[in-house]
């Protein structure tokens, strides 16, 4: 009996380049997690510090040793709450940015496979980015129960920023092709 093996770079060659995943598939969610972790760490630490001060305002220490343990306990709680908040925020940002990249790549893959002769000469990542951005903001608006006005505004912003992100990828790919052609001519 022959064992079935799955080689993803054969099944989905558009997502792979030189035998490895395209850069943005890995870098965007990873960068999103780092950015979200730092942001969540800062905001959660500040909130935990103020909360500790508010909860213990009625029992301030009176001795030097008491102040030492007070600050030590406060610092540990601030660090713990900051890390927890950073992980939570980083996971959210990584999830949403990973979903954007996955949806954008899926739309691009669908366009390239359904109409290869039409889409081949054109850079279409700006359009797939706009559709992915609008779709994810519509989903987020429903999930977070935004008002109609807020939801429409967010959809416009999502489509705009998605088109900008996709346009940057189109520009990068165009510049790589142009530089390769110039190197061959020289």
Keywords:
6 helices; 186 residues; single chain; 2% strand; two-stranded antiparallel ribbon; mainly alpha
Q: How many β-strands, per DSSP?
A: 2
Side by side, the strands of the main sheet go 1-2
Q: Give, in order, the helices and strands.
A: HEEHHHHH
Return the average pLDDT rounded to an integer. Answer: 85
Give the helix/strand class: mainly alpha
Number of discrete helical segments: 6
> Unreliable segments (pLDDT under 50, ≥5 consecutive)?
none
What can you tell me about this protein's structure?
The protein has a two-stranded antiparallel sheet with strand order 1-2. The protein has 186 residues and is an all-alpha fold. It has six helices and two strands, in the order αββααααα. The chain has helices at 8-11, 23-55, 64-114, 116-119, 125-143, 148-185; strands at 16-17, 20-21. β1 and β2 (20-21) form a beta hairpin. Helices cover 80% and strands 2% of the residues. The mean pLDDT is 85.
What is this structure, in a nutshell?
The protein has 186 residues and is mainly alpha-helical. The chain has helices spanning 8-11, 23-55, 64-114, 116-119, 125-143, 148-185; strands at 16-17, 20-21. The protein is elongated and about 80 Å long.
């Amino acid at each position: 009996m022959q064992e079935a093996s799955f080689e993803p770079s054969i099944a989905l060659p558009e997502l792979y380049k030189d035998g490895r995943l395209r850069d943005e598939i890995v870098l965007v969610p990873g960068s999103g997690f780092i950015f979200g972790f730092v942001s969540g760490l800062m905001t959660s630490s500040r909130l935990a510090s103020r909360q500790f001060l508010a909860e213990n305002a009625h029992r301030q220490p009176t001795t030097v040793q008491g102040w030492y343990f007070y600050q030590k306990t406060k610092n540990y709680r601030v660090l713990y709450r900051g890390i927890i908040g950073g992980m939570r925020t980083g996971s959210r940002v990584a999830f949403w940015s990973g979903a954007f990249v996955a949806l954008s790549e899926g739309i691009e893959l669908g366009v390239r496979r359904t109409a290869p002769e039409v889409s081949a000469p054109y850079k279409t990542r700006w359009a797939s980015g706009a559709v992915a951005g609008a779709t994810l903001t519509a989903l987020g608006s429903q999930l977070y129960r935004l008002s109609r006005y807020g939801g429409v505004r967010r959809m416009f912003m999502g489509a705009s920023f998605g088109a900008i992100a996709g346009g940057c990828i189109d520009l990068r790919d165009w510049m790589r092709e142009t530089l390769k052609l110039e190197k061959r001519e020289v």
